[in-house]
Amino acid sequence: MTDQPSTRLHLGCGHEILPGWINHDLVALPGVDVVHDLDQYPWPFDDDSFTEVLLYHVLEHLAEPMRAIEELHRITKPDGVVTVRVPYWNSQDWASDPTHRSRFNEYTFDFFDPSRRHGRIRPYYSKAKFSIRSQVFWMKPVWRYLPVKNVVGRRILSAFARHLGGVIWVVEWELVALKA
Q1: Which of helix, strand or coil describes residue 164?
Q2: Looking at the whole model, is its pTM more than 0.85?
Q3: Which of 19, 60, 105, 174 is deepest in the core (most CB within 10 A)?
């Protein structure tokens, strides 16, 4: 049996090393396979390399998130899945970390999805196109995060979160790379 290179990439893995994945981080921690600063372009991965990419709490640290999203699109295979998790724009998680540079809300990735209103009226924002497969809001009512996946629950939380900070702490998207 020959070892096939992994088609799954975990960007900004930190200490969370995933077996069978290519684990990337800015720092050469134990178990990290690729050390690279994601603010340096292009990223050290070939076009259309990955069927699955995870990045949890990474995009908000980058200087140019639009460029990073375009790199994600470049390295992901057609119909590959990219899972992004970021702090919500008015959560304490976003506000408390001095290394956070960019804010995100429930509509951020609508600009990359041609089926969504923002993606239809502003297709010129980016050549990177994704279909939003799912979206999850994470709440932190006491000491741990709770996911809210259903549409009605997300709409109610979204309405409150626009006016009250700390209702939604984290937003997660599952994106499918659209390529011609």
Answers
A1: coil
A2: yes
A3: 60
